[in-house]
Amino acid sequence: MMKQTVMVTVFLIGLVLRVSVSAGAELNWDRALAELDAPILPSEEKVETTSLDKVADSTTTSTPSPQAQVSTVAATPASPPAIQQNFNITPAVAPTTTVSESAAVASQSASGIAIIPMIGGTGYSGRWNDHISNTYSLGLALEVAMSSVVALEAEGSFGKHSISYSSLRHDFQQYGVGGNIKLYPVKSALISPYLGLGLMGIYYEDMMRYPFRYNRWVGAPQALAGVDVNVNEGLALGVRGSYLVPLLNRPATADNGIFSYPGYEEAAAIDSSFVRVMGTAKVSF
Fold first, then answer.
1. What is the CA radius of gyration of the chain?
2. SS3 content of the chain, % helix, strand, coil (to 5)
3. DSSP 211-226
């Protein structure tokens, strides 16, 4: 009886264990089938993307570390500074020219053309000095520079005079036209002296051979000298003197004095030499 009880007990325990094992295996099998039937989802992985703008910003704003800077400088070959290279170049030294010297050169040469208005007085030489008075004398010249030393000049003049002798007294006019050659031996920043020679045609108007009046042309070589004082770039003020001696087409007289043969007194005056002193204003272009 005891043996049967033991065998029944062993049988029951084995049966329970079998059922438990079968139930566990069936549960695991169902779970495995459920996992196979479920959809496979991709795993969520964070992919870090970097835009071009972020790259540009990081490139612009990023500052290398001091160690990187030191290594970069050490790797780059040294070159001499640009300012040191400039110091090694010796510039050509231009001659020093003052403002006044530049103004003088411009005033004297400029384009080579100058207009010279003149005003002054005329005085006759010899015995006619006390018998002819000059009210005023005007002149105008056009100068053309041929070089820094030589210039050609065309000159025109006008003078109003009064003559008196014996019991006669009247006015007459004197016109002049001619040309000169001028030499400028010295030119400085301040003054420019010059010398010249020329030939003038002198026209006397309203001369008298009592009781008639007449006019007369004479040719008169002239020597002149003057100086220009440079004021600025295109203006020079100065003074000039000229001495004229009538030699061509002189009227005939008895003795060339104030007591010439009657009717020829003023012919002697026309034959007399005279001096002009004029103030000038030279305007250069």
1. 61
2. 30, 40, 30
3. TEEEEEEEEEEEEEEE
Question: In Å, how far are 108, 185, 202, 243, 265 from 273, measured between CA atoms?
Answer: 32, 27, 11, 7, 15
Segment 54-75, tens digit of pLDDT: 444 444 444 444 444 444 444 4
* Amino acid at position 232, single letter: N
Residue 132: is its pLDDT beyond 60? yes
Domain boundaries, the chain: 101-284
What the block records as the tokens of 278 is: 């004029």
Angle at the Cα of 283 from the Cα atoms of 277 and 285, rounded to 5 degrees: 145
Cis peptide bond prior to 211, omega within 30° of 0:
yes
Q: What is the pLDDT of residue 52?
A: 44
Residue corresponding to tokens 């005023």: 136
Alpha helices (H) in the chain, listed in sequence order: 2-37, 52-61, 66-75, 82-88, 99-108, 265-270
Q: Which CATH number does the domain 101-284 belong to among 2.40.160.20, 2.20.25.10, 3.40.640.10, 1.20.58.100? A: 2.40.160.20
Count the Cβ atoms, other than its own, within 10 Å of residue 247: 13
Residue tagged 């005003």 (tokens) = 119
226 and 236 in contact (C-beta within 8 Å)?
no
Return the structure tokens found at 24: 């566990």
